Amino acid sequence: MGMVAILKTWCSTGRGIGARGEGSLKAVRMLGAEGLVDARRRAGQALERAWRCDCCRSLLAHVFERVGSTLFLDDDPELLAQAFEDSERDRFSARVLAACIVMVGRERVAVAL
User: Fold this and answer.
1) Where exactly are the structural domains of the chain?
2) Does the predicted model carry a pTM greater than 0.90?
């Protein structure tokens, strides 16, 4: 199973921070979407295209190894892209990471003390 299929499998609708706050998420904005539902549709398309690019495919193959196993919806894709070597990223890397964030990211919650 390829990385795109894995990300699509993990994606579930109904998760999220509420419609009014979704548009403020950098990953959502980077995909040109207004909310998570639209962002996830666009992310699926972006990941399909990314899988055909050698540089993006390398990034996808190492994403969890470089940035950790948990992505949060409020993560900054541009900052996460800096975790990759120059040879593993290009001008589309932040957008590919934004797609990963909206597909599998979860809401960041504070731990109750």
Assistant:
1) 3-104
2) no
